[in-house]
Design a protein that fits this description.
single chain, 175 residues, alpha+beta, Tetrahydropterin Synthase, Chain A, 57% helix
Length: 175
């Protein structure tokens, strides 16, 4: 009889230990899935939050300007070449710099005269946009597209005779 109670206790301890192990594994899986979903939603909302203020600013300041870059590569408008830009990137050590050459696509040829008059202002806008970025922000294609959108929106705010459709980087070197 004593042997039977000892065997029952051993069986109960083994099944109780298995139950605790299963509970721990289920809890870890739930935590990992929850953490993954939280990271996805938090990181995804940053992209929307960054682009949202630019769009609302654009629509409130000028109603006629779209704020979107054109992606119609079959009918590219007149090009306005800019000379080379060399700027320091935003970093703790200050050791990285960016060398960029770019061409600006105009919506109509008549805008070229206004671009000539405001060339210093446009260069200033571009230099401010470039030098406010870190290497991590511009090292991806998505980051370069955000930079293009920012530059297009900023320049379009100061133009009266037309608007910029797109920007094309012809040289982009980070060192």
């Amino acid at each position: 009889m004593a042997e039977e109670t000892v065997e029952e206790e051993i069986v109960e301890k083994k099944s109780g230990g298995n139950m605790v192990l299963i509970l721990i594994v289920v809890l870890l899986v739930v935590l990992l899935v929850g953490g993954g979903l939280a990271a996805f939603f938090l990181l995804g909302s940053d992209d929307e939050a960054m682009s949202q203020p630019q769009q609302t600013t654009q629509t409130t300041t000028t109603k006629r300007k779209t704020g979107k870059r054109s992606s119609d590569y079959l009918t590219i408008g007149p090009m306005y070449p800019m000379s080379q830009f060399v700027v320091n990137l935003l970093s703790e050590g200050g050791g990285k710099y960016l060398k960029v050459s770019l061409d600006i696509e105009l919506d109509k040829q008549e805008l070229s005269a206004e671009m000539d008059m405001k060339k210093s202002l446009i260069r200033d806008i571009i230099i401010r946009a470039l030098s406010s970025k870190t290497f991590e922000e511009i090292s991806t294609m998505k980051g370069k597209d955000r930079l293009k959108d920012e530059i297009v929106n900023s320049i379009n705010e100061v133009l009266a005779d037309g608007q910029i459709k797109n920007i094309f980087f012809t040289d982009f070197v980070v060192q």
